[in-house]
Amino acid sequence: MKEDFLQYLWRFQKLGPEPLTTDRGVPIRVVHTGIPNLGEGPDFLQAKLWIGETLWAGDVEVHIKAAYWYHHRHHSDSKYEAVILHVVWENDVEVCYPSGRTLPCLKLSDRIPPQWWKKYYKSFEKKPDWIPCEKGIAQFPDFKWQNWIERLYLERLESKTIQIKLLLHQSKNNWEGVLFQLLAKNFGLNLNGAVFLKWAQHLPFQIVQKISHDASLLEALFMGISGLLSGEMNLAYKKQLRSEYDYLKQKFGFKEIPGIRMQFKGLRPPNFPTIRLSQLAQLYTQNPRPFSQLIQADNLMDFDWIRKVGVSPFWETHYTFDKSSPKKSKKISQPFLNLLLINTLIPLRFAYYQSQGGNAEEKILQWIGTLPAESNSITKGFTQLGINLPSALFSQSLLQLKAFYCDPKRCLRCAVGFHLFDFST
Length: 425
Prior knowledge:
The chain is elongated. By secondary structure, it is an alpha/beta fold. Helix 4 packs across helix 12 (334-355), helix 8 crosses helix 9 (236-252) and helix 12 (334-355) runs antiparallel to helix 13. The protein has helices at residues 3-11, 68-71, 114-125, 142-170, 175-187, 189-202, 205-210, 215-225, 236-252, 273-286, 290-296, 334-355, 361-370, 377-384, 392-406, 415-420, and strands at residues 28-32, 35-36, 44-51, 54-65, 83-90, 105-107, 318-320, 323-324. Strands 1, 2, 3, 4, 5 and 6 form a six-stranded mixed β-sheet that branches. The chain has a two-stranded antiparallel sheet with strand order 7-8. It is built from 16 helices and eight strands. The relative contact order is 0.10. Among the domains are: 3-112, no CATH class; 171-332, no CATH class.
């Protein structure tokens, strides 16, 4: 038994033919089941119920066992003070408000026909598959996909906004500084992203702004703070960068990060941290205030300048300090720019307009819908199930679907699962 099944039963009032009553026999008449709550707090908000002769307005909480009210410490959480009905499968303990008054309880285990639970279990729970509905997902109508895809993508943006808000709080609402941190994380890719973000948060952004006119100083700063200028100094260029980095440390008084280490193994040479750090330095030399341009941009063509960003002359003939290679400009590729747009630029623009009380959804959906879909193990899995991915809007949405609906088996909160689940068969 899972709570999402019970939430489904309550939300759509699949509660059997008998009139509803509390565990004490008091009649219940539902005016409004409440609004499903995907965040913290009660499962359904703003419900309206007649309980006996009284019309109540408040929230509804759903549990497998009544005792979970205490296990989850709802009795000491102010968010649950407005709960007017406790819907449970098993009423194993009496639940009371802090005042001592009993919380009305609706028990479902005696009301639900066993075949309904068996149908749910067969449809979603007892599945060794990649996703619970993989044998039926292709039956989901095309006309329903668009609304569900857009909703999933906006959910994904909302989850990314949480991290952005945290970074804004830490940086005292410096949007340019937060963009720098997020760009650094993206330039580190999956393997080095966390380390890139760590040094970008550690380094005062004011220093980046003050020396952004000098690509050599920026590169020395980024390489040094990343721990790439330690060890033997058997190369003139490395010595030059180390000298510049030591000068910057003395001038600005920032501290190094102990134990920081970059990963090269498992990366293609164009993605080596040395190359990405040089590109990041060149980017901020060419445009020290990219956030302002992000907010003013009318279309994706306004970001084409990023594709002209390359590396310093030394890195045109190197991928690492100690080994030369054939000369190559190593400009930022279109696929990498797409990643920056998908993972940083578009989410940050969404978060900014949301913070200003504006509605950026239409423009955001338009932008993400023109970018090509990403290719990874998740998107390939959906493709193998017959799902077409025409754009990054679909690939991003399906990443959200897999992580937040399929993996935790929240099937009855998913439009696909809800469509496939039918008590009539």
